[in-house]
């Protein structure tokens, strides 16, 4: 994926989280974007999944039914399995 596409996806994801927590649609300026990108690069890794056509929407609907974003739902399921394996 090109940087411009990554920027657009990140902006949309960040604003969704930002607006969800704040409950409004406050403007997001370039310095905030730069700081957010810097923080994300230092603290997160990206994982690209390859799914059969149509499955993303099915999984997204499952996540929504559980009150989560698709990303949060995937991480939640992986963490549950990891903890089961460690008997935590």
Describe what you observe in this structure.
The protein is mostly helical. 70% of the residues lie in helices and 0% in strands. It is built from 4 helices and no strands. The mean pLDDT is 81.
Topology of helices and strands:
Elements: H1 3-22, H2 30-43, H3 55-65, H4 70-86
Helix pairs in contact: 3-4
Short description:
This protein has 4 helices and no strands.
- The counted number of beta strands is 0
Alpha plus pi helix count: 4
Class by SSE composition: mainly alpha
Query: Rg from C-alpha positions?
Result: 15 Å
Provide the descriptors you would attach to this structure in a database record.
88 residues, mainly alpha
């Amino acid at each position: 994926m090109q940087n411009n596409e990554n920027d657009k996806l990140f902006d949309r994801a960040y604003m969704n989280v930002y607006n969800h927590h704040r409950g409004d649609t406050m403007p997001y300026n370039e310095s905030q974007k730069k700081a957010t990108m810097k923080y994300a690069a230092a603290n997160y890794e990206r994982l690209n999944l390859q799914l059969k056509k149509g499955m993303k929407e099915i999984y997204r609907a499952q996540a929504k039914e559980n009150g989560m974003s698709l990303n949060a739902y995937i991480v939640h399921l992986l963490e549950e399995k990891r903890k089961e394996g460690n008997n935590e």
